[in-house]
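User: Sorry, folds how?
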Amino acid sequence: MNQWFSPRPRERVEELFGREAEVRRLINTLESNSWVAVLGPRMAGKTSLAIASSREFAKRYGYSVVYIDLRNSTTLREATERILRNLPRGVIRKIGRYLSAITIKGLEIRLKPSASASGALEEALRNLKKTVIILDEIQKVKEGLPQFLNALSVIFNENPELLIVFSGSYAGLVKKLFSQTYSEGLYARQPIEITLNPWERDVAEEFLREGLNECGVKVSEKELEDILWELGTLPGWLSAYGLRRCLGDEHVKALHRVSESAVKEARRELENLLEGRSPSAPMAIKLLSYGATWSELEKTGISKRALHSLLDALMNDLYVVSKSQIGNRAVYRFTEPSYRKAALLIQGR
């Protein structure tokens, strides 16, 4: 299998392309005994960076790495049970009084109905030695989130051998989790932020050329132009295109299929973002496909407050809109082709 275009997260730093500075910073941050939040747009490679860099750190210093995907955990209890399923048996035995079911081989661990989820989490994490835990999609936990963060705050103080790396597809929401009041956990201990941006164009071109060459596929300058015009420079979508080419798809077919998936995913995110917002928000979203000033966006009828909230979410939660100065005009626009196309498909309400 061509490792350049693997559909799975990378597990070794040697497999990460064009992220040398970010790898160094993440490892240096863990070496300083700090926690980390990996931020950036979807498909930028946040999970790969978190896993590969943490494993490199662990190899150097004798740590273990535990990766936990919380995307299906919406409550503290669900998140705690998912975390516990991934911890060593010895740790689980020490918190037996909290548990009603333990089937290690089947990875089934259930808290007693009367058990405190935050108490079980604190005690389990307190007993971990020399471990890096990667919490992916932590922002999905809605019910009991303050208690979740408080438990982590306690462990930050009590177990210096536990290091945590946070990541998530709504990266800005991950960041906001740690900007709560002083009474809500990690405010004074905010993780060090590492932001992954889309690749620069020359890095994206080099990635495609070298990866396709390795599997014997020649790519022309015209094809490269097509790819970057349609897909932008996010590593995830370029990797998906490269994998299809290496598995035998022709250029046009591979590009169409990946572009279709990217637009579909972008549309889903934008529609989720629009839920409960101003009826004028879909029109403002459409204008961002072409680039628009604040005053042009206001002409859709959206209020200043609603527009500020919308742009904040697009720029600082999803990382898909940028603000640039053109002459004396500040223009807002989508940075990635898939979002520009998806925005035009959004239906008004």
